Amino acid sequence: MIPRLYIESPLAAGAVVDLNPARSHYLRDVLRREAGATVLLFNGRAGEWQGSIERVSKAAARIAVERQTRPQQATPDLWLVFAPIKRDRIDVLAEKATELGCRCLWPIFTQHTAMTRVNTERLRAHAIEAAEQTERLDVPEIRNPAKLGELLANWSPDRRLLVCAEFGQALPIADALGRLPPAGAYAVM
């Protein structure tokens, strides 16, 4: 299996990508790759590219970009709006939402949210790891937390908001989804 790495750098044939120490450590010590090994790179803008490791050390790595293996593809315009949950579970939430193709993850604080802060950098790291492992070509946007009232007051009418609330005689989710137009911008809360 060829490892995939998300990078911020532009990608094109003949380009050279220098990895920071953290990514170099991951490539060398976690993935156990050496000079000459093949890797796949993506940045969320230019598709997936094959590259070859020119050098790798604990402090730095350099990858020569060779050829595009897949063009960039748009992900569905689906957001996940959620109340933060405990640390281990929010990590899994970011991973699974990324695997399922969500374009944006937006934590919100409700009246009864027990968590008081969200580590968005940690969420982004889990989203990047999930994108690398699932052959996704982009990483979802991780928004800064907002209060529910502020979010709803500023909600764009162009994006349909599906609220998954557990009360009353609600429709089963499959029935509710069957009544919606198939295309468009959606968010699930």
Helix content: 25-40%
The structure class reads alpha/beta
What is the residue-averaged pLDDT?
90
Q: Determine the N-to-C terminus distance.
A: 36 Å
Global geometry: elongated
Q: What's the number of extended β-strand segments?
A: 11
The main pleated sheet reads as:
6 strands, parallel
Q: What is the number of helices?
A: 5
Gyration radius, in Å? 19 Å
Strand percent estimate: 25-35%
Secondary-structure element sequence?
A: EEHEEEEHEHEEHEHE
Unreliable segments (pLDDT under 50, ≥5 consecutive)?
A: none
Explained architecture:
With 189 residues, this protein is of the alpha/beta class. Helix content is 26%, strand content 29%. It contains 5 helices and 11 strands. Strands 6, 7, 8, 9, 10 and 11 form a 6-stranded parallel beta sheet that branches. α2 links the parallel β6 (78-82) and β7 (104-109). The two termini are 36 Å apart. The model has no long low-confidence stretch (mean pLDDT 90).
Keywords:
alpha/beta, six-stranded parallel beta sheet, 5 helices, 11 strands, elongated
Task: Please render the helix and strand layout as text.
Elements: E1 4-6, E2 16-19, H1 21-30, E3 38-42, E4 48-56, E5 61-70, E6 78-82, H2 87-99, E7 104-109, H3 120-134, E8 141-142, E9 146-147, H4 148-153, E10 159-162, H5 173-178, E11 185-188
Parallel strand pairs: 1-3, 6-7, 6-11, 7-8, 7-9, 10-11
Antiparallel strand pairs: 2-5, 3-4, 4-5
Helix pairs in contact: 2-3
